[in-house]
Every structure is written in structure tokens, then in C-alpha cells.
């Protein structure tokens, strides 16, 4: 495709917890790039002669997740809308207090932005800064299963180093990290169960230069088969049967034998004190159809029990975005899932089979 008509794309998206943003990308050369926050232009920059652009601005505070998009305006006025969208976590405004300076707290960590395309969602992760001479940390980026059920691990590490994999402190596999740092391996046959998975990165002399550790659940083949197909939504609890039956619309019933008319009353002797004739006693009315008698309430309604928190066990292939979409109806609610389980998620980009998350209640 002609570079002059390529829609704008993101290359780098870095947004700090306080809203400071650095956005870089590509678009047609010498085009005006509008960065739109929920459809409203937040800032505007121009691409260079090679089509690159960089924008630095501050995202205003907002307690809700928002979407960042791109629109390029060419010299002839033609506009090209970006095919990618980035989901941004809430930015919480900090209000300075006039009281004594509180003890310093750990800097907040915001969930990484998500790049949204027609193919799905991808986490935008800035590479970790490593000082010159320091060893590159080892990371575990994915735990997946092969079609035959074998466990596959993948991540990044120091090119040329050796990785040693442990399950519950027992060494089970070694692997060499390629020069580009992207490693992958398949675990030997492992019985189903929950383990502590540890990865040590070893230097040439065998010294441990980096380490990562996480809970890991080795699923059964039956569980894997179920994980491939999304579980059906849990049926809503049936509404309790009403204690008082509602009267049904009258239906034409088969003719019933007429009820016996009450016997005529015995003649009543005229009262001697009156000169007016005594009115004949009115005929007894036909017995009306008897409406259903309301059933007596079985018992006083007990106070509603507190709603139990909704939990979900992470299965292979799950992501925070997918959990939020399936369980809460909106992918951008992944931020709320992260906030509700921060104590269990070391890295918002990585979750592992066997972790149990609590879903926030609306």
C-alpha cells in the first residue's frame, strides 16, 4: 500500500499513573495527527518526512477507563482514521493535603495500556530499563498447552544464559536462552496439581543472576478440553414461586350441575303492629364462583443472605481483558478486575492458570 495513504498506527504508548503520556507512531509523511480521547481531540502533532510522530501531553484525570485513537489529516484535507485503539486505565487526581507530609508510599503502578485491533487485544509493554553491565532479568510471559496437553513456557532472558526450571524446588528442565533473549520450552510430563514454578537464570559459572517465581496449576486433560470451549453462562436463579397465586383469567368451564336452591323459608306470621304488607323475603342469590383462597404464607420472608463474592479460576489462555468481557460485559473493565486482585497479580500483563480472582460487584 502507498505510504501516503497508510492509516496512522501506534508504536509506543507510555502513560504514567499521574497521566504524563508519551505516544509515538507512524502515518503518512507531513500529515497532521490528532490524538483523540473518547473521540475528543486531546492534542495534535505533525509527522516528519519519514512519517514518524511523537506526542507528549498529560491525560486529564478520570475515574473511568477511556479509549485513545488516531486520525491523520493529509495536506489535501483527506482524513485517515487509525485502525488501532488503545484502552487507558483510569487516571486518579491527587489532592495535596495541608496537613503534615505523610510517609512516602510506593509509587502506584497502573495497568499497561491495551492495543485494540480487529484481531483482539495486545498488551503494550515498555521494555524494562537495564543499567549497563547489569544482568537482564528473566521473565515468564506465557504458560500454554500443546494439542497433546504438554505444558509450554515462554518468556525473555539474558541471551546466552541457561535457565533451570523448578517445580516445588525440584529441578525438572534446563534450557538455553537464544541470542535475541526470547526463550521457550516444553516441560517434561507433569502430574496434574498446583505447584510453585521457579525459573533461575544461570551465568556461565552456574551463579544465579535472575529469578522469577509464580503459582502454577497443571490442568488435567479433561479440564483442558473444557477450557477450549467457553463455559456456558451460569443460569440465573429461578424466581421464587409467589405465595399468593394470581387468579387466572376465567375460562369457559363445563356446565356444572346447578346448586340446589335453598328451601323456601317457612311462612312468617304477620306482625300485628304493622299495617303495611310484609315484603316477601328476597330470593337467595345464586352461589358465586368461589375465587381461589390465597394460600397462607409458609413463613415470614427471611432477610436476604449476603451475596457471595463471584470468583473465577484462571484457565489456560485467559486474560484480564477476556475475563472482563465474559464476566462483566465490557473488556475495558479489566482495570476493575486488576484493582480487585492487586494482591495476587504481580504484573497486570501476566496471569497464570490456577490463580483465583474475585470479580468486583457493581
Structure, described:
α2 crosses α3. The protein starts with 8 loop residues before the first strand and ends with a strand. It has 362 residues and is mainly β. It has helices at residues 221-228, 320-328, 334-340; strands at 9-15, 20-26, 32-37, 40-46, 52-58, 66-73, 79-81, 85-88, 114-117, 120-123, 139-145, 151-156, 162-167, 170-176, 182-186, 193-202, 208-218, 310-313, 356-359. 7% of the residues lie in helices and 32% in strands.
Gist?
Helix content is 7%, strand content 32%.
Secondary structure elements and pairings:
Blueprint lengths: L8 E7 L4 E7 L5 E6 L2 E7 L5 E7 L7 E8 L5 E3 L3 E4 L25 E4 L2 E4 L15 E7 L5 E6 L5 E6 L2 E7 L5 E5 L6 E10 L5 E11 L2 H8 L81 E4 L6 H9 L5 H7 L15 E4 L3
Antiparallel strand pairs: 1-2, 2-5, 3-4, 3-6, 6-7, 6-8, 8-9, 9-10, 11-12, 12-15, 13-14, 13-16, 16-17, 18-19
Helix pairs in contact: 2-3
- Report the helical percentage: under 10%
The main β sheet shows up as: 7 strands, antiparallel
Assembly state here? single chain
Derived from helix and strand composition plus strand pairing, the structural class reads mainly beta
**Unreliable stretches, pLDDT < 50, 5 or more residues?**
126-130, 227-231, 241-250, 262-281, 287-291
CA(first)-CA(last) distance: 46 Å
Q: What is the chain-wise order of helices and strands?
A: EEEEEEEEEEEEEEEEEHEHHE
Query: What is Rg?
Result: 36 Å
Mean pLDDT over the full residue set: 73
What's the number of helices? 3
Strand content of the residues, in percent?
A: 25-35%
Number of strands: 19
Indicate the overall shape: globular
Amino acid at each position: 500500500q502507498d505510504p501516503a495513504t497508510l492509516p496512522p498506527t501506534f508504536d509506543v504508548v507510555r502513560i504514567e499513573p499521574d497521566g504524563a503520556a508519551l505516544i509515538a507512531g507512524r502515518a503518512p509523511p507531513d500529515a497532521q495527527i490528532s490524538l483523540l480521547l473518547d473521540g475528543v481531540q486531546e492534542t495534535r502533532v505533525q509527522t516528519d518526512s519519514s512519517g514518524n510522530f511523537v506526542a507528549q501531553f498529560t491525560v486529564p484525570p478520570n475515574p473511568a477507563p477511556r479509549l485513545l485513537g488516531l486520525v491523520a489529516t493529509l495536506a489535501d484535507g483527506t482524513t485517515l482514521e487509525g485502525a488501532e485503539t488503545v484502552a487507558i486505565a483510569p487516571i486518579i487526581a491527587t489532592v495535596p493535603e495541608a496537613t503534615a507530609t505523610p510517609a512516602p508510599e510506593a509509587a502506584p503502578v497502573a495497568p499497561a495500556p491495551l492495543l485494540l485491533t480487529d484481531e483482539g487485544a495486545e498488551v503494550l509493554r515498555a521494555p524494562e530499563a537495564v543499567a549497563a553491565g547489569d544482568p537482564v532479568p528473566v521473565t515468564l510471559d506465557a504458560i500454554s498447552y500443546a494439542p497433546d496437553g504438554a505444558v509450554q513456557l515462554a518468556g525473555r532472558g539474558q541471551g546466552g544464559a541457561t535457565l533451570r526450571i523448578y517445580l516445588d524446588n525440584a529441578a525438572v528442565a534446563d534450557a538455553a536462552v537464544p541470542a535475541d533473549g526470547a526463550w521457550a520450552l516444553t516441560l517434561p510430563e507433569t502430574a496434574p496439581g498446583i505447584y510453585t514454578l521457579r525459573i533461575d537464570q544461570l551465568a556461565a559459572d552456574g551463579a544465579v543472576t535472575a529469578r522469577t517465581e509464580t503459582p502454577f496449576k497443571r490442568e488435567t486433560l479433561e479440564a483442558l478440553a473444557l477450557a477450549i470451549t467457553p463455559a456456558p453462562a451460569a443460569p440465573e436463579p429461578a424466581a421464587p414461586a409467589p405465595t399468593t397465586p394470581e387468579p387466572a383469567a376465567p375460562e369457559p368451564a363445563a356446565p356444572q350441575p346447578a346448586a340446589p336452591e335453598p328451601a323456601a323459608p317457612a311462612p312468617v306470621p304477620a306482625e300485628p303492629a304493622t299495617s303495611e304488607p310484609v315484603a316477601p323475603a328476597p330470593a337467595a342469590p345464586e352461589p358465586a364462583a368461589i375465587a381461589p383462597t390465597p394460600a397462607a404464607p409458609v413463613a415470614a420472608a427471611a432477610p436476604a443472605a449476603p451475596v457471595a463474592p463471584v470468583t473465577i479460576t484462571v484457565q489456560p489462555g485467559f486474560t484480564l481483558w477476556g475475563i472482563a468481557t465474559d464476566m462483566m460485559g465490557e473488556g475495558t473493565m479489566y482495570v476493575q478486575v486488576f484493582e480487585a486482585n492487586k494482591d495476587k497479580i504481580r504484573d497486570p500483563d501476566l496471569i497464570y492458570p490456577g490463580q483465583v480472582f474475585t470479580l468486583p460487584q457493581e
